[in-house]
Amino acid sequence: MDLSPYRITTEPYYHPTGHEIALYEHAYAHRLPLMLKGPTGCGKTRFVEHMAWRLGKPLITLACNEDMTAADLVGRYLLDTDGTHWHDGPLTTAVRHGAICYLDEIVEARQDTTVVIHPLTDGRRILPLDKKGEILKAHPDFQLVVSYNPGYQSHGKQLKPSTRQRFAALEFDYPEAAVETDIVAHESGIERSLAARLVDIAHKSRRLRERGLEEGISTRMLIYAGTLIHDGLPPRDSCRMAMTAALTDEPDMAQALEAILDAAF
Amino acid sequence: MDLSPYRITTEPYYHPTGHEIALYEHAYAHRLPLMLKGPTGCGKTRFVEHMAWRLGKPLITLACNEDMTAADLVGRYLLDTDGTHWHDGPLTTAVRHGAICYLDEIVEARQDTTVVIHPLTDGRRILPLDKKGEILKAHPDFQLVVSYNPGYQSHGKQLKPSTRQRFAALEFDYPEAAVETDIVAHESGIERSLAARLVDIAHKSRRLRERGLEEGISTRMLIYAGTLIHDGLPPRDSCRMAMTAALTDEPDMAQALEAILDAAF
Amino acid sequence: MDLSPYRITTEPYYHPTGHEIALYEHAYAHRLPLMLKGPTGCGKTRFVEHMAWRLGKPLITLACNEDMTAADLVGRYLLDTDGTHWHDGPLTTAVRHGAICYLDEIVEARQDTTVVIHPLTDGRRILPLDKKGEILKAHPDFQLVVSYNPGYQSHGKQLKPSTRQRFAALEFDYPEAAVETDIVAHESGIERSLAARLVDIAHKSRRLRERGLEEGISTRMLIYAGTLIHDGLPPRDSCRMAMTAALTDEPDMAQALEAILDAAF
Amino acid sequence: MDLSPYRITTEPYYHPTGHEIALYEHAYAHRLPLMLKGPTGCGKTRFVEHMAWRLGKPLITLACNEDMTAADLVGRYLLDTDGTHWHDGPLTTAVRHGAICYLDEIVEARQDTTVVIHPLTDGRRILPLDKKGEILKAHPDFQLVVSYNPGYQSHGKQLKPSTRQRFAALEFDYPEAAVETDIVAHESGIERSLAARLVDIAHKSRRLRERGLEEGISTRMLIYAGTLIHDGLPPRDSCRMAMTAALTDEPDMAQALEAILDAAF
Amino acid sequence: MDLSPYRITTEPYYHPTGHEIALYEHAYAHRLPLMLKGPTGCGKTRFVEHMAWRLGKPLITLACNEDMTAADLVGRYLLDTDGTHWHDGPLTTAVRHGAICYLDEIVEARQDTTVVIHPLTDGRRILPLDKKGEILKAHPDFQLVVSYNPGYQSHGKQLKPSTRQRFAALEFDYPEAAVETDIVAHESGIERSLAARLVDIAHKSRRLRERGLEEGISTRMLIYAGTLIHDGLPPRDSCRMAMTAALTDEPDMAQALEAILDAAF
Amino acid sequence: MDLSPYRITTEPYYHPTGHEIALYEHAYAHRLPLMLKGPTGCGKTRFVEHMAWRLGKPLITLACNEDMTAADLVGRYLLDTDGTHWHDGPLTTAVRHGAICYLDEIVEARQDTTVVIHPLTDGRRILPLDKKGEILKAHPDFQLVVSYNPGYQSHGKQLKPSTRQRFAALEFDYPEAAVETDIVAHESGIERSLAARLVDIAHKSRRLRERGLEEGISTRMLIYAGTLIHDGLPPRDSCRMAMTAALTDEPDMAQALEAILDAAF
């Protein structure tokens, strides 16, 4: 099995917001299953890519969803002209050959997915392939990482305590203003001063969460806006297109976001 | 793979209502994922066809619905006399060969569809084909465009914030009266003065939304009515058949629409 | 592909109630998608058969239901001893070879069905066969017709505005008394005077809708009753068997219908 | 196709309660679709068997249920060593070769089943085999009969008006006391006087429906009890075992039934 | 077909609580469909095994559940290297070759299962194999027996009256104290006096049903406890482990059960 | 069949909290089905592994979930180039060859799973393989063990009484402070005094259950924290990462946990 497509060969840009790199390294040293908690677009996926690059391990990422079955993770028998043969799923590939397996938005997964990872996340570190009659011991390099956005718990989906308890956790948030300004300037190519104004807009939008906005403007949206401005579009148009138009359909909330833009430009 | 069936060879008629063509070109220059927001029949699909023609890129359109699976988008193994072989889905075709992929009415899709596009809409621009064990890097020409009708959010379906935040957005509405009149006259062949009367009826119907009509008369319906009038049908019959009879089943609302026709002819 | 089984070779009896034949011909001239609205058993299906015969076009009829998939309409790959080959569904057959495709009771269909018809019902007139990688341009003779019973909207199923707006509409109702009398006499063979008494019963039953009867006695039921009377059964027995016994299970409503029969015979 | 397994060669015992045999014959003469309405165990199935024997037509009976698909009725392609071939379902067999098709408890069927019978129950008398591309004209001997228990409508399942209106209907009830006594005596072998006492118990139980019993003791249960008594079991034991023990789990209702037995023996 | 695995060759221990053996024999003599009603663990399954042994008939037992399909009962076509061939399901095996078929917990079955047994439980005694085009007449030895726990009706699942009415019924309960003591002593090997104390605990627990305990301690649990005591475990530990620990999770109820044990030892 | 992958060759560390080892051995001596009740992460899985090692029996563990079918447990026919052949599922393997079968979190299983085990857990000790037509007598070494967390019953899932009553039960809880301290020190390598401080934090967190925390800090989480501390991470960081960050998303509860850490370090 060739894991090279899963190796990250160039350093993914990541600007630390605390000592999360050291904490991850300690967790990886003991192969503790790790949960990354935090809002959308704050950098969790980028962080795990950065850590995979830093540790020199292949990374297999799976976006969880309610239509993904246990077989999609673990594998299945496929019919061939020579009969059926077993096909490892991506989780099994990671367990067998020693990759970091990253289950993005674990809370979206169905129960059969979350239950599959239980024997991988306690002292056993095994993956039973029931249909194949094999008990797979995890490769020493294997680690399981999941991401989780606590802001969605209102949607009725929650992690079961018996799953939560299997993970050490790192909490993420949008970076501090100065750091976020650096990131926006670096990734979009605009001036730091202009980046700071965009970050200020984002901060104001995040405060609207108390008034009912589901999520504020993310770092990723700031980078989109900066890119368009750098490309020559007027800042106001760029901000509306990249930051506020997609964010809400509520007329009141849209007006509040518009007012923030009014104040900024 | 021959993308020529997806190429648009004759210019689709599109009458701009603002500088949306320039905004789209900026977004395409950076391959920003783009969301087109607006009511039914206001020209979003025509716009993306026009832009694909203008940019000279093939366009693969998919109407989202709750019965479409991730495999319908990404592809699957098909059984053949020579065993199974992989068959790229339409999204994969667009990603691999560099088309614009347009997901119409994204909000109707199931979670596994919307989650599939996540790694295509951040810095990674990849499409993991988990079942095939391939991580597909997007072709430089690939862009993802989705459409979204915010007026439907009352039906209980909404885009998750983690999906919304991945898109820059362009907001559409029915064109201004003068522009809409031009369009109706151009497409149906009737006089501008008659087209203006039809547009006036549409405007009055759209105001009925405040009284509970789900959507007003669209530009497309005006063109239907104009076509029938141009063909010799009496205007009143044409308007009832093409504009009001299909629009509602509520007796009150039907009467209100009838009254608008009474006033017009 | 041989469409001859779908050709209607003998004129289906149809008694016009207005100028609906001319309106249909105008709509067909421009291949406008057409919606036939009206109550059960008032003659919508017969009308579209009559028009297909009159226009000399093959007619492919599909009864929509919530278990019909998009593949049932569009087609699928079937496994053969020579491997898989594509099998056009009935909608695709109509689009490719130029039939009128009639989707009966469109509101019963699932979303993936109604979404499939969208690109056939705007300026594009195409049917994308995503699984086959083919974009099928509609044959010049192809027209889409749907039927819709607005009386059922209380059952929670409605057409989405984005679907409604794609259709010109013809409204049907039970024919006027004199016309309905002609139809019943013609189809059952009874005297016109007796037919008039049956039609009078039907009219009284339809007024019960205000008191909660879901639908009144249809023209079809009158023809059944007339047929039994013509065959020698007593009128009262014939009316109970063919008109009232099937119509309701509510004791109050059954008694009201019985009282109407009492008054008639 | 050999329909002989579906032919009824010995006369099924049926005791008419009115002129339902003549009414059925008239309906069959015109092949009117027929609905048999009435409570459980009152003889609807026996009646249709009797009529099939009397008319000398094969009878194909299908018990409707919510897990029966349209393909179960109409047929499907089956995979063989020689590739796929079409396999007529039981409804198609009846339509093609001229049997009476009896859909027992039609209200339990899913929508795709009830919709399938629509074109068989109007002037067309056709069964479109969409997947096979065949439009099957009904054999002249084919008739569709359905049964329906109106007492269940409280369970939330109802026939759609558009289905009801396609049927002439015969209403059934438990036979009158004298007739029911004859039937019980004839089928179980007990004396007429004893049979009369059993029938009296049944009548009292049926009055409990007003107090909440879902259904009273049916004719079939009376025959069971008579059979056990004739076999030497004490009447009280026979009645409890065959008539009351199965009927309810409510302590109050069980006590009321017990009191009826107390009074009888 | 070899039914020998379904034959019971050694007498299953069964202690009658009334004349249920004679009642069963009368029912079997006429092959009346039989329903065994009673609480969990009171001996219904053992009784039917005993009767099958006594009558010298093979017994095919099926535990009903909501995931069991009609095909699981009746049979299906299986694909082979020589094409497809029909495979009788366990119910079909019983009907064809003359076994007693015992459907345990019939109320858990889905509708398609309960409907399948209808033509087997009236005068027809047939099993239509629709997919195979065969109408199977029941073997003279075939009898259908179902079990049913009326205590569960609160879970929203009930037998339809049209199913109930097809069965004669035998009512079961836990045996009287003296009989139950005999059974516990016989099966576990403990002294009769000790067995009597266990039975007394069970009786007290069953009275807790009025206070909300779902079911009291069953005979089977008493035998477990007796077995552990006979094996040398202290009675208190044995009773907690085998009788009370599994029975409830409610702290109040657990305390009440504990108090019963306190009083006993 | 080679069960050696299921044999446990090195003693799993287990610190008894009472005489549960003796109780298990008595239950195993009579092959009583056993239910292990207790909260997440208190050592139930470790205990059953320890007992399998102690008794020298292979152990087949299955994590129950609502997407696991009866066929996943029992087995199925698989298609091969030589036709179909039967493939024993993991439960069948345990029953046929004599392993302990451990169904983890039985309450998560669907009904068809729990019903499958019924004939294995009464006097019959059989597993009917209906699809294969085999009645499998359990190997003398076979025992069924299930785990069950009563704290979850609020999630609407409960074991049916008819399932509960088939098991003897052992109740587990987190170990007493001294024992838990020993375990944490032994498994993580930290000093006993530091381990005691961690255990004290866990005890305080468990008391928060009365204030709404779903579950307190488990022994497993204490070991994670101890491991990180032993590795050089500051205790406070280690405790947040391994013990509190994953446990809750409620701001109030998170603050309460933080206050416990404040008091400890």
Structure notes:
- The structure is a homohexamer.
- Chain A is an alpha/beta fold and about 260 residues long.
- Chain A folds into two domains: about 5-170, P-loop containing nucleotide triphosphate hydrolases (Rossmann fold, 3-Layer(aba) Sandwich), CATH 3.40.50.300; about 175-265.
- Helix content of chain A is about 40%, strand content about 15%.
- Chain A contains eleven helices and nine strands.
- In chain A, the strands form three sheets. Chain A has a five-stranded parallel sheet, with helices on both faces. The first copy, chain A, has a two-stranded antiparallel ribbon with strand order 3-4.
- In chain A, α7 (about 175-190) packs across α8.
- The longest helix of chain A has 16 residues, at about 190-205.
- The radius of gyration of chain A is 21 Å and the shape is elongated.
- At the E-F interface, α2, β2, β3, α9 and α10 of E face α1, α5, α6 and β9 of F.
